[in-house]
Amino acid sequence: MSEHERILNARAIYYLLFSQLFVFTQKSDRYDGVLDLLNTIKVSPLNSECEEAIERLIPKFQKQNLQNISQEYDDIFHSPPSPVSNTFSHYDEGYETGSACVKVRNLIAKTDIRKNEEIFKENEDNVGFCLLLMHEFIKNELKQNEQNSENQTYAGDLFKEIINPYIDEFIEATSAHQSADVYADACVLLENFVEFERVFYATPKPILEKKIKSTGGISRSETLVREINRRARAKERELKFEE
């Protein structure tokens, strides 16, 4: 196995792990395989922080604890009063089913991959679904055994255009949730892995603008435009006053 293939295999394992953690499904076996994946990455963790997070996660994914993890997921992503949004559209524009969703759908349309509507109830820009999509692209690239395959291009586009710009805000919101325990450690792994992916794709971490919550369906970009206009009007009033 070449060095390129070894890296692809390792990346595929991480994306499979994160997809199993963040894709919502009502199947009772939703966390099957997570323990094996954690033991696999434990052999060669990304760094000491990840090693410690893995050590904390492994005992929590014993069979008798899985129902508690399912409840934690629901508490974080579904339960009022302040569930964490898990779509990239939300972090892009402040509401669901935005341009990020359209971009992912357009990307999928170029491939042979189709969403199983019976299993995946969320939109295509759902964080877990996009992580699973990355796994599929890398797995297909390994099957093709080509370094410049279409699947490599698809994966690069998905990471650079959808995942990279907004994943940090998702990680921060999830980690900060009062119910986050298992998912706080999962975010430690995800955050460090995303940094690895940025190196892999030679894609810098985005400079996040000051966060402004969307209100009444107004997107962050629209909010910023309004703020710029407000400041311009205030400046005009100052000039008139000086005259």
Termini Cα gap: 76 Å
Helical amount: 55-70%
Average pLDDT across residues? 88
H and E order: HHHHHHHHHH
Strand content: under 5%
SS element count, helices: 10
**What structural class do helix, strand and pairing data support?**
mainly alpha
CA-based shape: globular
Give the biggest beta sheet. Answer: none
Low-confidence runs: 212-222
Number of strands: 0
Keywords: Chaperone
Protein name: Formate dehydrogenase-specific chaperone
Pfam families: Nitrate_red_del
Question: What brief labels describe this structure?
Answer:
0% strand; 10 helices; single chain; 243 residues; mainly alpha
Describe the structure concisely.
The chain has 243 residues and is mainly alpha-helical. Helix content is 65%, strand content 0%.
Describe the structure.
Keywords: Chaperone. This is Formate dehydrogenase-specific chaperone. InterPro entries: DMSO/NO3_reduct_chaperone, TorD-like_sf, TorD/DmsD_chaperones. The chain has 243 residues and is mostly helical. 65% of the residues lie in helices and 0% in strands. It contains ten helices and no strands. The protein has helices spanning 3-22, 34-42, 48-60, 66-77, 88-93, 99-109, 127-144, 150-176, 182-200, 220-242. The longest helix has 27 residues, at 150-176. The chain is globular. Mean pLDDT is 88; it is low at 212-222.
Task: List the topology elements.
Blueprint: H1 3-22, H2 34-42, H3 48-60, H4 66-77, H5 88-93, H6 99-109, H7 127-144, H8 150-176, H9 182-200, H10 220-242
Helix pairs in contact: 1-2, 1-7, 2-3, 3-9, 6-8, 7-8, 8-9
